């Protein structure tokens, strides 16, 4: 393994893993033992080792979501020892290394817990509710033909920086899993803020926030109570300031809206 420490002592771990055949079946915690785990492994590599052991024993492997394994795609949505993505701040599960744990540890691994994120199987959840929220308003209208290139529109650096910071949201759902109300406000606010701050997003500015908030409610996400656990567990550091921006945008839109719902 590239960059591994040859002097690192392998670990033996106890894993309490949520197993659930499908969304219509009751799940339960099942205990497994994994041995000779290198501290230089990523958390997902450790799960790969578990699944190899299960397959060799003729058992069904543990289903979990993953793709890039580079902290970019946001699909590695695991609840580890009661925390979204595990114990290391600002880190996705795929970038979490086993050196954060100790030999003999017991690790509890669960899927995101939210009505809007139904479990597909084991640790894999359906996060398509986020996609539908984005579809409700996360786009911009532009004139075709002789329209100027977007990069030619002057934008103050502080504005572009704030929009970029909001755009770093990877849509993993850690904010929802960390929130006691399963609120999606941090996710939605990041998407709304990103476009509301930029000149390209002004055409749909008012309808966008109305439609996305309405879709969020339809999907069954809870209300925000400003506890801040969402921002504390966000792996890319999305700020609570975006929720304040979302609230202002929503009130401004409702003040002139024909939709009184």
From TrEMBL:
Spell out the protein name for this chain: Succinate dehydrogenase/fumarate reductase iron-sulfur subunit
Cofactor(s) needed, names only, are: [3Fe-4S] cluster; [2Fe-2S] cluster
Family per similarity comment: Belongs to the succinate dehydrogenase/fumarate reductase iron-sulfur protein family.
Q: Which SUPFAM superfamilies match?
A: 2Fe-2S ferredoxin-like (SSF54292), alpha-helical ferredoxin (SSF46548)
Which positions fall inside the 4Fe-4S ferredoxin-type domain? 160-190
| InterPro entries registered for this protein in UniProt | 2Fe-2S_ferredoxin-like_sf, 2Fe-2S_ferredoxin-type, 2Fe2S_fd_BS, 4Fe4S_Fe-S-bd, Beta-grasp_dom_sf, Helical_ferredxn, SDH/FRD_Iron-Sulfur, Succ_DH/fum_Rdtase_N
Alphabetized PANTHER family for the sequence: SUCCINATE DEHYDROGENASE (PTHR11921:SF41), SUCCINATE DEHYDROGENASE IRON-SULFUR PROTEIN (PTHR11921)
Give one Pfam family.
Fer2_3
2Fe-2S ferredoxin-type domain location: 28-113
